[in-house]
Amino acid sequence: MQPEIELKLDLAPEAADMFAQWPSLPADSQTAALHATYFDTPDHQLGKRGMSLRIRRSGRRRVQTVKADGRDGAGLFARDEWEMPVRGAKPVLDARTPVVALLGEAVAEVDKLFTVDVQRRTWAVTQDNATIELVLDRGAIMVAGREQAICEIELELKAGEPAALFALARRIDADIAVRPGVLSKAERGYRLTEALPAAIKAEPVALDPSMTIRQVFLRIGAACLRHYRLNEALLLDHYTPGALHQARVAIRRLRSALKLFAPLLPTADLARFQGELRWLAAVLGEARDLDVLMPRIADGAMRVPLEEAQAAAHDHVLQWLASARVRMLLLDLVEWLALGAGMGAKASRSAAPFAATRLRRLRKRIAKEGKSMVRLSDGARHEVRKDAKKLRYGAEFFAGLFDEKKKHRSRQKAFLGKLEAMQDVLGALNDLVATPAILARHGLPGDIGAGGAEKADLLAAAARAHGELVDARRFWT
Predict the structure, then answer these.
(1) In what residue span(s) does the CYTH domain sit (predicted)?
(2) What CATH number does the domain containing 316 carry?
């Protein structure tokens, strides 16, 4: 088993020819045509466990590789790898790999799932006294008649410090736009076996009670970046309101994580990243407001200017997503997390007590803030809503630290259900009170006919939801 550390970068297919001619590349390179076949059981048991199994053919040579999940780095992949030469086109599954132990009797069901064909060009690059293998892959993934293009750069660290990978990535981006990649070829293939989504929700963060604060924060941060990048990629390909919404959710989740761990993060880093993420959320915000508002507009005269504003807002989003500012923010965040986020010795403590303290304080604040929900001003109620989001994200992040017993899992589910119910009502209230301001920004008078009775009903529902949340049993004790 050999550890592998690589930084994956996505680039547009039309930029690949430019990169191949990049003046900073060494004159010498190697070129190879690679054909890889990936295998799994019909119900994808390996993929569900974060494993991939492939046989790659280059010329007459075949190499079988098993890789473990490498998502923790959000662009920086550090993976366990089992590799050996094989003679035929079928995998050799024995004690030299973990596949048999993972699958048991189901190992007999392993069969071909999808193929990947790429033209690979490889250079050996020196950056800041580090030796880096730089690879440009261009090709396609094929699954049962469906096909998806691949165009990516991989920077694999052969010797030296991981920071050199990011220094080289910045040099590349100065001339050719790249952004951190978060999907391995195996993950792309698995996704292609199903219908392509219009948006991608946050994936559960795999934590366990033995983890330290540092390990937990780095894993949460990586998961948030992955969530954002998956939806950003959808947006850059084709705008959908769902992908924009999930990109904003990913930003909010990351900002919430930064606040949860703020006592252990460098002040300057925290201020910088919170500021940039707040800006990015605002960039996406106007488009999201109009996406939510438009289905409620029945007046044809009002729809025309709002549709024009909506189209302009969508264009504005796509222009900024393509900008160097956004690309460098993502790369900076990936590097910061990959190098430990500047966390000190205190971050080596057990994560569970820290998480319990942070959740308890948030819950207490929400209980106090929302005590007179019906009489709160719109602004004060919005603050309760924001704190409820932080508590929900924190409860979702930290769930794995407290799920060793069945009673904890049932309490988690109930608690998150109460939080979600309160968020839904407060979200509806926020949409209601925000509508006049949105219309005014676009020169339209009044609102869209929402009456006081609707608001009163929502306020009563919010008060009930708040009471039920306060009474819900905590799962972190």
Answers:
(1) 2-196
(2) 1.40.20.10
Are the beta carbons of 346 and 264 closer than 8 angstroms? Answer: yes
CATH of the domain at 64: 2.40.320.10
Outline where 261-371 has alpha helix (H). 267-293, 300-321, 324-338, 351-369
Task: Kindly report each contact of residues 315-318 with a partner whose C-beta sits within 8 Å and lies 24 or more positions away, as own/partner.
Answer: 316/283, 316/286, 316/287, 317/235, 317/239, 317/244, 317/283, 317/284, 317/287, 318/235, 318/236, 318/239
- Do 42 and 157 lie in one domain? The reply is yes
Tens-digit pLDDT string for the chain (477 aa): 444 578 999 999 889 989 999 999 999 999 999 999 999 999 999 999 889 999 999 888 999 999 886 544 455 555 578 999 999 999 999 988 899 999 999 999 999 999 999 999 999 999 999 999 999 999 999 998 899 999 999 999 999 999 999 999 999 999 999 999 999 899 999 999 998 899 999 999 999 999 999 999 999 999 999 999 999 999 999 999 999 999 999 999 999 999 999 999 999 999 999 999 999 999 999 999 999 999 888 778 889 999 999 999 999 999 999 999 999 999 999 999 999 999 999 999 999 999 999 999 999 999 999 999 999 999 999 999 999 999 999 999 999 999 776 677 889 999 999 999 999 999 999 988 888 888 888 888 766 655 578 899 999 999 999 999 999 999 997
CA nearest 155: which of 175, 187, 181?
Answer: 181
| Chain center to CA of 128 | 30
Residue 59 region by backbone torsions, left for phi larger than 0, else alpha for psi between -120 and 50, else beta: left
For 294, the domain range is 228-471
Same domain membership, residue 278 and residue 335: yes
**Judgement on whether residues 169 and 232 belong to the same structural domain of the protein:** no
